[in-house]
Every structure is written in C-alpha cells, then in structure tokens.
Amino acid sequence: MPEVKLINIGKTYEGGMQAVKDISLTIKDKEFLVLVGPSGCGKSTTLRMVAGLEEITTGDLFIENEKVNDLDPSQRHIAMVFQNYALYPHMTAYQNMAFGLKIKKVPKAEIHKQVMKAAEILNIEDILQKKPGKMSGGQRQRIAIGRAIVRRPKVFLFDEPLSNLDAKLRGQMRIELAKLHKKLDATIIYVTHDQVEAMTLGDRIVVMNQGEIMQNATPMDLYLNPNNKFVAEFIGTPKMNFIKGEILKIDGELFFKNNHFLFNISKVNNQQLENHIGKEVDLGIRAEDIYAEVGNLENYGKVHAQIVAIELLGNEKLIYSELEEHQLVAKFSAEQEVQIHTTIDFYFNLNKTYFFEKENGKRIN
Ligand code: ADP
Predict the structure, then answer these.
(1) Residue 342 Cβ contacting ligand 1 at under 6 Å
(2) pLDDT digits over 253-274, tens only?
C-alpha cells in the first residue's frame, strides 16, 4: 500500500540555505496529510523532494517501501497539482488531461476511458472542449486535478492549490477536495499556509517552522493540546491570547502573577508547573475560554480591562481589550451586553489555561 516515509530528510540549497532540517514523517496509506506553516518554513521544499523535483540533501525517502531518493519524478508514481495549475494554454481541457498518458503511449481508448472517468468524478464533462483561457479559476483548478487523476498515481501531492482562488471559491473547492479524497481513496500530501484549510482538510496535520516539524497531530489534538507556543498561536482563529507572568509559591499554593493580577493556579497545577516556580512563563488562553460573567468564581481568574473594540460575528462577538503590552481577545455570545470604552471584568477559565516556557515556548502543563 502506498505509504510515504521520510527519514531524517534535510535540504540545503546551493549557497547554504538550510530549508529543511532533519524531518521524519510517515504518511499512511489513504491518509490526507497537510503540511502547514508560515511562508518560507520549508513546506514546498519538502513536497518537491517527495515529488523528485528537488534533490534530497540528507536522509531517505520511501514510497511503498521502495527507496526513491534517486528515482526520476516519472518513476515515483506520484502526481502533483500546482498552485498555478500549469495547464497548456493551446490545448483543450480534454487534451490537457490526456497529455501525460499520450506521452506514455497509452492506447487512445484507454486514455479516453481515464479522462472521462476523471471528468465524471470532478463534474467537468461539459467543459472538456474548452481551452484554459476561457475557463474560470475554479474550472482550471479542476482540470489540473483531473490531469493528476488520469495518471492514477499512488500518491497525490498538492502545493497550495487553492491560493489563486477568491475566498468564496476557495471555500467551495475545500469541500470538493475533501469529497474527492473520499472518492479516490487516495494518499494525499497537501501543502498550505492557511491553517483553516489545514484544519478542514487534514486527517493529520504537520505544523512546520523554520525547516522543522513543530507538531504532528490530528486537527483537534493540535487545537486542544499544542506542544508549544508556536503551534498554539498558529492554530485557531482568533489567535490564542498570551500573557507574560511568573509562577510563584505562596503559603504552599501556586500562583501566576503579573503587574495586573494574581491567579491561584493550585487547582490546575501539576508537577510540571511546580518545576517552574520563580520562572517567567507565558500563560495562554483561547478567546472562547474567557467570560464576562460566571456563576461560581472557583477556577476562574479575574482580569480588569478596558474594551477597545467589538467585532460582531453574528451569533458571537469578539471583544478586544488591552492590558499594558498585551492585546486580549474574548469571544462572547451576541446577547452579552458590553459597551466599547468601558472597563469590565473578564473571567479566565483556569482549567483551560496553557503555560509555556519563556525561553523556548515549550508547553509546561
Ligand atoms: P514554503 O513552501 O514553506 O513557503 P519553501 O520550501 O518554498 O517554503 O522555502 C524554504 C526556504 O528555502 C525559504 O527560505 C526559501 O527562500 C528557500 N528556498 C526555496 N527555494 C530555494 C532555492 N531554489 N534556492 C535557494 N533557496 C531556496
């Protein structure tokens, strides 16, 4: 079965740029794996090494248990869909999709069968005679995917395939890609810088930064259990709030303290926090874990701050406030009465707080 395995893979470009540093990763058969991270973190380089478009500097790459480091792209049984579609402008959709098979001297009848099958899967039978110049962005993207499907690859590689589409179409295509994955029952490696795209499409997500893997987990696990501050900040909208402070022990109880407040965190304590007494840390909390009112104060920390902006989302609203150098965002239900420029109490659910080491952003609790 087409499993893809990267073992200690690294890439140093000519001139010394170390784009990918020693990453190890297994993409299971039929898995939809998303590589996500900020621009320049090494996602495309990683994908291009799998495709064979970029030489691997160190490490081993296996596709279906075969080491493929030195195989040509055409011998790897993969198909790649690019951001810019890379369609031939003088050919019709049909010819674009058929081209790869024609080069391989596949019989005409077989080519026709594969093209029509892909066209049916993608619902593009009616545009097969159109040339790319006469198509919409979404149609071009479908043809580019169709061209990959007809080759019946073991693994599909997608490099930011939706980033040239407008927001609405991107949303639609996201849903179509998820459906397509089910229909094709295929192994997919998908690169994007968009964490929402990653969260909606991936069975599993690998978050990268500066050529390294920050975390490899399911979407929910990344959201609920980030290993470090980078992942905590990168995943989720609005971004997680971070507040600098210090861990203290007073009369046998553990506290998180900064210039504005003192939270008793004895209840959420575990041995890890105990090991950071006297040290500076970042407290992290998501907007939805901050409330304007709570029934029972136990396990909540109170923060007094002025509202500087309110953003209505429909059934919810985002409340922005400032706490010295920290901007704070809370998500309240739309019915919650709050006025801009007033100072109110915000209640942090201490059971939903995260603590990170100041020096390296590693999760503590
Ligand atoms: P991403 O896809 O995450 O945006 P890339 O893999 O394209 O990142 O790039 C990773 C790093 O490698 C970046 O710093 C980029 O400038 C550098 N890089 C990419 N391609 C080349 C190249 N051909 N030569 C030198 N450096 C490159």
Answers:
(1) no
(2) 999 999 888 999 988 867 889 9
* Residues 288-338 pLDDT 10s: 999 998 888 888 999 999 999 999 999 999 999 998 788 999 999 999 999
Q: What DSSP letter does each residue of 244-277 carry, written as one string?
A: EEEEEEETTEEEEE-SS-EEE-TTT--HHHHTTT
Going by alpha carbons, the residue nearest to atom 21 of ligand 1 is 13
Of the candidates 12, 37, 7, the one whose C-alpha atom is nearest the C-alpha of residue 193 is 37
Nearest residue by C-alpha to atom 7 in ligand 1: 44
* pTM (2 d.p.): 0.92
Local confidence band at 84 (pLDDT 50, 70, 90 cut-offs) = confident
Long-range Cβ pairs for the range 133-141 (8 Å, 24+): 133/89, 135/93, 137/164, 137/165, 137/166, 137/169, 138/165, 138/169, 138/172, 138/173, 139/93, 140/85, 140/87, 141/81, 141/85, 141/165, 141/173
Of all protein residues, the one whose alpha carbon is nearest to atom 24 of ligand 1 is 13
| Among the four given CATH numbers 2.40.110.10, 1.20.1280.260, 2.10.220.10, 2.40.50.140, the one describing domain 241-357 | 2.40.50.140
CA–centroid distance, residue 19 to ligand 1 (Å): 6
Best residue among 17, 21, 43, 207 to mutate for probing ligand 1, ranked by most atoms within 8 Å of CB: 17
Give the start-to-end residue ranges of the domains of the chain. Answer: 4-234, 241-357
Q: Which CATH architecture has domain 4-234?
A: 3-Layer(aba) Sandwich (3.40)
Spatial separation of the C-alpha atoms in residues 208 and 225, rounded to whole Å: 16
Q: How many residues belong to the chain?
A: 365
